[in-house]
From TrEMBL:
Name by which UniProt lists this protein: Cation transporter
The keyword Membrane is annotated on this UniProt entry: yes
Any one GO CC term of the record: plasma membrane
InterPro entries: Cation_efflux, Cation_efflux_CTD, Cation_efflux_CTD_sf, Cation_efflux_TM, Cation_efflux_TMD_sf, CDF_Transporter
Domain Cation efflux protein transmembrane: residue ranges: 18-211
GO molecular function annotations of the record: cadmium ion transmembrane transporter activity; ferrous iron transmembrane transporter activity; zinc efflux antiporter activity
Length: 349
């Protein structure tokens, strides 16, 4: 049986999130041992972060499986927004962790405590760096393959851990070998700031996803270019895009010859959908055909006024508000107006 690209992506996210949970458990055990042996605030900071990572990874573990559920009667667009919710939870937990670590670090800056058994702590941190680097590399490959927001959020955790562990290593070395425990506390404070910055970035990504931010300019340009490869399609307008988990939702209106039969118009839009799917295998596409020059404004609450196809001698500039697609001298189609990424107008264009 042939597996769809979306199903293959979901299987990839399930595997990588399982590995993420297992890695978090291993790191917690190692760092708890190192904390007991050394008493280092940097190790404490890293342990707290790994504990939060485990909770976040468990949330991601559940979210990617929830997001992979097929559409049902109550969720006709599927459950992909679960990934955005998981990322939002991750951001909140990382931010809370940064506050705790920062508070502890500030206290120990003013009340330094000696770091003992530094050799054990250093060994554990070096091993943690190696394990975390391996996980981040595998998560990066998974994100490139699937575009999963939840896995990207989880990767952000562990990428921050990777940098934080380097800072922790500096702190432990300075406290145990250089007898400068104040540097150990300062390293913990650096970790706290790093985590807070990562949490804000996660929060922005989750908010964009949950608030239906449009696809990037490059992706929108690729969609318009794929649709207008057929010279019979003109005036792409009301292009709307958003992400639902790993699925790209695309809808648009296009102008066709009003004398075409319904079957002919259907065949043209079907071929256009197939071209978009070749570029975006995870897309869900809806194309509405308008009779060129004979369609009245329509589309509901968010519909913009329908553009008129301009005369060839009065083509709009790239910044004008009238979206259109005209033929270039070479015969290719050139998107203009709000459907062109260089000149977007209106909340849904």
């Amino acid at each position: 049986m042939t597996v769809s690209p979306l199903d293959a992506a979901h299987e990839t996210t399930r595997r990588i999130t399982t590995l993420s949970v297992a890695t978090a458990v291993l790191l917690i055990v190692m760092k708890a041992f190192a904390l007991g042996a050394s008493g280092s605030v940097s190790i404490l900071a890293s342990l707290a972060d790994s504990t939060l990572d485990l909770i976040a990874s468990l949330a991601t573990f559940v979210a990617v499986r929830w997001a992979a559920l097929p559409p049902d009667d109550s969720h006709r667009y599927g459950h992909g927004k679960a990934e955005g919710l998981a990322s939002l939870v991750q951001a909140g937990m990382v931010l809370a962790s940064s506050v705790f670590i920062g508070w502890e670090a500030v206290q120990r800056i003013f009340d330094p405590r000696p770091v003992t058994s530094g050799g054990w702590a250093i060994g554990v941190v070096v091993l943690s760096i190696a394990i975390t680097a391996g996980l981040v590399w595998m998560q990066t490959q998974a994100v490139k393959k699937t575009g999963s927001l939840a896995v990207a959020g989880d990767r952000a955790h562990y990428a921050a851990d990777l940098a934080a562990n380097v800072v922790v290593l500096i702190g432990v070395v300075s406290g145990a070998l250089l007898q400068a425990p104040g540097l150990d506390a300062a390293a913990g404070l650096v970790v706290a700031v790093w985590l807070a910055w990562g949490a804000l970035n996660l929060l922005k990504g989750a908010a964009d996803h949950l608030l239906d931010r449009a696809a990037s300019d490059a992706e929108r340009a690729a969609i318009v270019a794929a649709v207008t490869e057929d010279a019979r399609i003109a005036n792409v307008h009301q292009l709307r895009t958003r992400m639902a988990g790993q699925a790209l939702m695309v809808q648009m209106h296009v102008d066709l010859d009003p004398d075409l039969s319904l079957k002919a118009a259907h065949d043209i839009t079907l071929e256009a959908e197939k071209r978009v799917l070749q570029a975006f295998p995870h897309a869900d596409i809806l194309i509405h055909a308008d009779p060129r020059g004979a369609a009245e404004p329509h589309g509901g609450a968010f519909a913009s006024p329908r553009p008129e196809t301009p005369d060839r001698d009065a083509l709009p500039s790239p910044r004008s508000e009238g979206p259109s697609t005209e033929a270039s001298p070479s015969g290719s189609r050139t998107p203009q107006g709000p459907d062109s990424p260089s000149a977007r107008v209106g909340p849904w264009s």
